[in-house]
Amino acid sequence: MQFFLDAFRWLLDPANYVPGAQNPFPIQDRIGEHLLYTVVSVVIAASIALPLGFYIGHTGRGRQLVIGFTGGMRALPTLGLLMALFVIVGATVPFTRAAFVASIIALVILAIPSILAGAYAGVESVDSQTVDAGRASGMTELQVLTQIEIPLSLPLIIGGVRASVLQVIATAVIASYISLGGLGSIISSGIGLNDNNRILGGAILVTVLALVVDGIFALAQRLTRRRGSSGSRAQKTHVRGRSLRPVTVAETPADERNN
Amino acid sequence: MIWFIENFGLITGLTANHVALSIVPIVLGFAIAVPLGWIANRRPALRSVVISGGSLLYTIPSLPLFVILPYVLGTKITDDRNIVVALTLYAIAMMVRTAADALAAVPADAIEAATAMGYSTWTRFWLVEFPLAGPVLLAGLRVVSASTITLVSVGAIIGSANLGYLFTNGKQRDFLEEIIVGIVASLVIALVFDVVLVILGGVVMPWTRRDGWIRRRSVLPVGQVG
């Protein structure tokens, strides 16, 4: 317990927040970097995966491809991907930028499956009668997608992005091993110096960051949920049943932890 | 290829350790999550605690958890037990929700029928609820298996001797072949585990073999079972 108290004291020490301090300080800069890596990778990944997921969900074409891809990605070791990309990128890009470029590529690759699965599963889960109603009232396919399918499946789509953001936050920590900045660099410098406060303090910071970001997404999912949409199917109960067992419906296409 | 052949002994050793480090969390996670999911369904208050506790735990990134655990358990940071405990926690966190959903989706009629026939809670669980929830539990277990195997390699950063060593060492030596060998070996382990789980599922649940039930089930992302 003493270790944790010390780590919290370390986290509250203003000396660790003085601008211009030696790496890995000041802490707020590392938090900023971590968020920057996350936003950049997820935005790039989303701009690839969302349109693709919408297309597949809407047309039903290429389903098997997506399922195979997301399933295969599940078994790919993140650390290996990161290191392989670092060696490959390092051969062409100057060393100072190799860590950043390799990490962003790895993070984008890892962020794509969850977003793709969320977008595809979301659009596909929209009731086909609702979609047909849209078509019958003269909507074009694009209108059906943007005005019916996407709004109704928003909780699932956000769920996919949420899973990928968590994945990216976790992988960016590991990327400190190839000297990427961010919160992982506090932990790795702590391991190098055998400094308990840095190891624990850094770990606590990442955990809190992940929990806060996850909480924001959970809130966004709740706010976008509508009556009758895929994320809010009411729990059916067996009235007859002695035990009133709810038939649960999952709310997010939560991806498995990969890092 | 020369490196691969010359270092075959090293690779086999690391692979064996990797497998050992993966099996314990997968088995323990399943054995703990299923009863936990069952209890969660009996008490609604407990259900929300278990489910949200699981997803909270699941949010903690792996490397931070690996380095926090030594302070909680009193182990050395390089101790493999930290990795086993961390991965078991993740396995429980991933599996408990699937288990609760799978058991809750067992038709109430089947449970009533079993109760009417005089089954005790214990026999009813093993003869009715567990087998009927089986295919969904298997789908969840396959996800846990794949994810655990990839996570073990992160342990190499804190000095665990598994396939992840090939990644960290290959990076230090700027040697791509070593990293690729590690990735391929890790993929092979994941594939073998998956095939073994599917075969085991077919043996334990022969009624699912006929119509390719398990195969169809597995296409669902983990959160969507039930």
Largest sheet of chain A: 2 strands, antiparallel
CATH superfamily of chain A: MetI-like
Strand content of chain B: under 5%
From the structure provided, what is the oligomeric state, counting identical versus distinct chains? heterodimer
The gross shape of chain A turns out to be: elongated
Brief descriptors of the model:
heterodimer; A: 259 residues; MetI-like fold; 2% strand; B: 226 residues; mainly alpha; 10 helices; disordered C terminus
Structural features, described:
- The complex is a heterodimer of chains A (259) and B (226).
- By secondary structure, chain A is mostly helical.
- Helices cover 70% and strands 2% of the residues of chain A.
- In chain A, strand 1 and strand 2 form a beta hairpin.
- In chain A, helix 3 packs across helix 5, helix 5 (95-125) packs across helix 7 (141-174) and helix 6 packs across helix 7 (141-174).
- Mean pLDDT of chain A is 82; it is low at 229-255.
- In chain B, 49% of the residues are buried.
- The model of chain B is unreliable at 218-226 (pLDDT under 50).
- Chain B starts with a helix and ends in an 8-residue tail after the last helix.
- The chains are: A mainly alpha (259), B mainly alpha (226).
- The interface between A and B is large, with 66 and 67 residues.
